[in-house]
Amino acid sequence: MASSWKASTDPDFTTKMRRILDLYDHPPADGRVLCIDEFGPLNLQPRPGRAWRPESQPVRLRATYTRDQGVRHMIAALDLTTKRLHYRIRDRKRWREFLGFLKTLRRRWPDQHLHLIVDNFSPHKHPGVRAWCATNRVELVFLPTYAPWLNWIEVEFAAVRYFALNGTDHRTHTEQDTAIGDYIRWRNQRARPKSGFATGSKIRHPDYPFKGCMTRH
Q: Hey, what CATH class is 12-44+70-192 in?
């Protein structure tokens, strides 16, 4: 049985990848590396999945529902020095919300140069964001196109979905936001520094063309 995935067509793929891997492997002594991305949209709907429940008392999910309370979005940063997640949940995910989040990170580490690994979502590249970063010792390190797997925060989002959302039927955004916050506080109390990204993996020394679709068996 074969599976396939879309390879990056970015002409600067190797240069961008090596820059990110170098930050992962050799974080600057006078700076801090953070992986940033948005998670969502956070709908209010029954979500299938496993959950801890008393024996013979399974979770009951609605068969029908309406989405009449809108959606929300989480923006988060994974601090590789401590492995802690820092996040905000907002109604929108425009450049203004992104810039507001960056300002919270700047206040958290006022004396360090921040290296932020982000994808190519248009709010991340907004002129207002770029101008603020340029004057506040913040470097935006953009992923190659079609390479979200290079952003270390992606695996953390999978855990947020598994532990905070799967098997739930939250009726309000406040209830859902609380569940997400409870999980993140729990994981942050047990966090350890991040190291060893894709150690020994083929992606560190690619010998395949970064075009079209690639297939493995």
A: alpha beta
User: Phi and psi of 56, rounded to 5°?
Assistant: 70, 20
**Rounded to whole angstroms, how far apart are CA atoms 94 and 173?**
19
SS3 content of the chain, % helix, strand, coil (to 5): 35, 20, 45
The residue type at 67: R
What distance, in Å, lies between the first and last C-alpha atoms of the chain?
6
Please report, for the chain, the start and end positions of each structural domain, with discontinuous segments joined by +: 12-44+70-192
Place of tokens 């979770």: 59
Does 58 have pLDDT greater than 80? Answer: no
Look at residue 138 and give its three-state secondary structure. Answer: strand
pLDDT average, residue stretch 137-151: 94
Cα angle: 27, vertex 28, 30; to 5 degrees: 140
Q: Which two structure tokens, joined as six digits, stand for 43?
A: 């709908």
Question: Is residue 101 pLDDT above 70, yes or no?
Answer: yes
Q: Could you report the per-residue pLDDT of 189-213, keeping only the tens digit for each?
A: 999 877 788 887 777 776 544 444 4
Least confident of 7-16, 111-120, 199-208: 199-208
